[in-house]
């Protein structure tokens, strides 16, 4: 499937494409969708400065990937029901630099989405004019992602406690905006938030819904913000903090049957290393940092710098993979199970988890042993992984999921994967399922 994502002013004569999407603006009649509409205006309004050209190029490619992913339905084009062949054309300001990194970009995207990507880069990319009203200072010392989730909340608390002055970047999602604002205010940073959305819209009867690359925009927005800080303009390196526990980042398949169903790899060490190589290749002085890559979620809660604050705010954070659709926590998906296990590790009892609104499964007064919970796929997969770990050992469970050849700090990653599964085991025991 061939998809071009270009500014409306760029002609597409001679391009053989199945779809064309507008980049950073709305789609006129005849186009198949748009991505990034309003993003330039919102970025300038929030930051009071314009990011550098290379950062806009990174955002353009990230948005183009998200738009193409949204347009190309897996079931419709994939021979195996998952892997797609996507030929993507996108406009950037420096095509030669991107072409020089083509193998890295292609491999990094392939790992992220599970597809085969071919990329072409055209000139005439977007380099916006500076905003009409500029700010005199951007004294923040780093950038940190703030999603409304528990991990990014802990990251925000720890950064504030360490004396850093972060600017928080939020991927605006229905239901999370209020949490993001409240969490930023709790650490004294309500006026230091950049909240954006990729705004991918496609005119397609059956758009792809898996959204594997959705958080790529989140990271690209963070790079945009980083290049506007005083520290960056002074020639220094700016850290972009990506707070995510190591167990979820690694997303080791619970069983061999689950190997192709990982929901996201956006914070996986291999993906972050690939994206860092792209950032470096663009000459951007931005460093991706996940300080919790070797921590479980429970360890993050236990070691949080402000125990009173995390105890107060954690119940209102969002972890569920379906949270945006059900406006709460299902209680039985893998992210919910990891969350419940972390609360147990932190508080010592199941009753210590006061998540609000309450988990849907089991409902209030319901039993974990009820079939609706105990036979749910993710619960069964976790029980299977625990059984493999207990009977056959960690090497058998992890298998080839954390190879030293492609995963930095592989042994430390294996150990956090084991400890994360043991946290889930403790929850299953407390729930009466083991």
State the main characteristics.
434 residues, single chain, five-stranded parallel β-sheet, six-stranded mixed β-sheet, globular, alpha/beta, 3 domains, Rossmann fold
Question: What is this entry, summarized?
Answer:
With 434 residues, the protein is an alpha/beta fold.
Morphology: globular
How many DSSP E strands? 11
CATH fold-level name of the largest domain:
Rossmann fold
User: Structural class, from secondary structure content?
Assistant: alpha/beta
Query: Mind summarizing the main beta sheet?
Result: 6 strands, mixed
Mean pLDDT: 94
Q: What order do the strands of the largest sheet run in, or round the barrel if closed?
A: 5-4-1-2-3-9
- Count of DSSP H/I helices: 19
Distance N to C terminus:
47 Å
Give the percentage of residues in beta strands: 5-15%
Q: Which value, in Å, is the CA radius of gyration?
A: 22 Å
